Amino acid sequence: MASLVLSSLCFFPSQKPCFLTSSLRFSFGAPTGSRSGGPLSVGFGSVEKRNGRIKVSVYSRASPLVFRDLDADDFRHPLDKQNTLLLRAIPGLNELGKALLGTMTEQIMLLENIGTSVRVSKDQLPELHKMMVEASGILNIEAPDLYVRQSPVPNAYTLAISGKKPFVIIHTSLVELLSRKELQAVLAHELGHLKCDHGVWLTFANLLTLGAYTVPGLGGFIARSLEEQLFRWLRAAELTCDRAALLVAQDPKVVISVLMKLAGGCPSMADQLNVDAFLDQARSYDKASSSPVGWYIRNAQTRQLSHPLPVLRAREIDEWSRSHEYRSLLKRATQMGVVEKV
Fold first, then answer.
1. Per the residue annotation, which of 106, 134, 182, 190 is the catalytic one?
2. Helix crossing, 219-249 with 324-332: angle to 10°?
């Protein structure tokens, strides 16, 4: 039986999506190229080396604010809203997606994940489990399953299949690259995709693109046009999920630090990275691309990317953190007491 291939987003912004049979993958995103600097640790506590001795600190944070009545549209990026409304306007798309993604796909991906990763729970990597439960509670969403996979490429992504319970996968190299707060921000970014039902809309967009290729003559042209529109929506969706990361981190520097490390960080230089300098870099990019020629080059550089450029994401989250919209959400939030058990 022929299988339906739907695109899945790689961790690195690419000019073409990777492909994973009958699955949906959302990733946090990073600049092109891999980084595999020498690891400081394999565990989930922060590691600090002093006088030749390794000190491991367990994840903890002050009681955060919780958004009990949070709706996805409360933090959805305007471009995400616009493109999502366009997809919702297509009749019968929801039913078509459910019909094409069946239980066999779910079983294949579940077995593959269980067989090649470590499933996080209260008894397995409990500190990481606590991060996920806390982030889910803050965003008012059910916590998905979480797995850790051995890989030298920093990555985190979400799989949502057939409307079943989704799961998040993070790579060990990402754990080594980020601090505990930064790692939780990445988990929150992945939760943002689930909160906003991005899995559903990515499926539909892919179905449209695949279907267009079957149209004689104009099929290829239509598909390419849809693909470009799909990438435009994907980039907007990433901006939405960066906002979800900020709602959980509740400190813009944490989210911007993640983007900075994904652009050019490694564990051995983590203590020398400067968030303010990275924001200055973002402003210099805006200035350099403000001329007509710069605008053309910028558009050509980004229109086939699945993720916005890290400097642009950093600037966006910095601006939103100072917006009336974000401050209003904080005023609605309540203090979290005890992390709920699941």
1. 190
2. 50
Distance CA 155, CA 148 (A): 10
Contact 147, 175 (CB under 8 A): no
The domain locations on the chain are 5-334
Query: How many angstroms separate the CA atoms of 300 and 57, rounded?
Result: 45
Contact 145, 117 (CB under 8 A): no
Predicted structure pTM score: 0.78
What pLDDT, in 10s, does the model give residues 178-218? 999 999 999 999 999 999 988 766 655 555 555 666 666 65
Active site residue 190: yes
| Phi, psi angles (nearest 5°) of residue 226 | -65, -35
pLDDT in tens, 121-175: 999 999 999 999 999 999 999 999 999 999 998 989 887 766 567 889 999 999 9
The first and second tokens of residue 105, run together, are: 């796909």
What is the secondary structure of 113-151 as a DSSP string?
HHHHSEE--SSSSHHHHHHHHHHHHHHT-PPPEEEEE--
